[in-house]
Amino acid sequence: MRKKIILSILSALLFIGCNTQHKPRLDGKKLIEKKCSQCHNLDLPPKTFEDEKAPPMMAVAFHIRDFIKAPNESEKVPRAISFVKDYVIKPSVSKSFCDKHSLESYGVMPSQKGKVSEDELEAIAEYMFEHFTLKNLNDAQALQNKLNAMPKGERLALQNNCLSCHKVDKKIVGPSFKTIANTKGNSEKSLIQSIHNGSKGKYASSNGAIMPAFKSLSDDDLKIIVEWILSFKK
Q: Which residues are annotated as a binding site for heme c?
C-alpha cells in the first residue's frame, strides 16, 4: 500500500513537472530600447536635449534607487522594480519621486497600460537597475576621458573597429598602420579610396584577407583617419 502511495506521488510530481511551462527570460536591453527610448535618453553618461520629453533613464534609475524606502540595502532593487511595474501602468503625482521643477518640465508620465506587459516591465526594470549604476557610470566616464585624450584619428579608428584588424606597429589581420604609412604609393587619396571602397591583395603579408568597405564614414572622418595613419610615415 505504502509503495503504491509513493508511486502515485512520484507520478503526480512528474506530471506536474512535464506540464509546467517555464516563462522565457525576456531581453530587458532590447525592450528598453524598443519601449522607452522614444522619450528617455538611454546613454551612459546621458545626453540632455532642450526638447526632451522625459528625463534620461540613468537619472530615473538613480532617483528611484535613492528615494525608494526599504528596510535594508538588499531590498532596495526588488522594491524599485515593483515600483516601476506599478508606476508605469498607474502613474500619478502622489507616487512620483520627481521634484516640483521636474514635474513642471516633464509632466506626469502617461500610462503605458496596454503598451507593455507586466513581464516586459519586470525585464525592463531589472535591466535598468543592473545597467544604470554608479560603477557603470564611472567606467563609461573613464572610457570617454580616455577617448577624449586620444588624437581624433585614433579615436575614430577605434570607434569604427579599425583596431580589430590593425595596430599601430603590429600586424594582426591586416598590416600595421606604420607599414601602411610607409608603403610606396600610399597617399592620402589612395588610402581614402581603400578605406571607402575596400581592397584585396594590396599587402602580401595579409595572406589574401579582404579589407571591407567603410562607405558609411563621412569624407571628413575618412580624411582625419588617413591623416592620422600617415602621421606614422618615417
A: 162, 166, 211
Q: Which amino acid is at 144?
A: Q
Q: Which structural domain range is residue 162 located in?
A: 149-230
For 30, phi then psi, to 5°, come to: -65, -40
| Nearest one of 105, 71, 107, 65 to 83, comparing CA atoms | 65
Counted domains in the chain: 2
pLDDT digit string (tens) for the chain, length 234 residues: 555 555 555 555 555 555 545 567 899 999 999 999 999 999 999 887 888 899 999 999 999 999 999 999 999 999 999 999 999 999 999 999 988 888 888 999 999 999 999 999 999 999 999 999 999 999 999 989 998 999 999 999 999 999 999 999 998 999 999 999 999 889 999 999 999 999 888 888 777 888 999 999 999 999 999 999 999 998
In a domain, 153, yes or no: yes
Are the CB atoms for 166 and 160 separated by under 8 Å?
no
**Binding residue positions:** 162, 166, 211
Domain match, 33 and 126 both: yes
One domain for residues 114 and 166: no
- Domain ends where: 80, 109, 137? 137
Pull the grid cell for residue 2.
505504502
Q: Which of 85, 113, 137 is the last residue of a domain?
A: 137
Does 203 reside within a domain? yes
Instruction: Give CA torsion, residues 49, 50, 53, 57, to 10 deg.
Output: 30
Please give the helix or strand (H or E) that residue 199 lies within, else none.
strand 199-200
Considering the domain architecture, whether residues 196 and 95 belong to the same structural domain is answered as no
Rounded to the nearest 10 degrees, the angle between the axes of helix 118-131 and helix 57-67 is 90
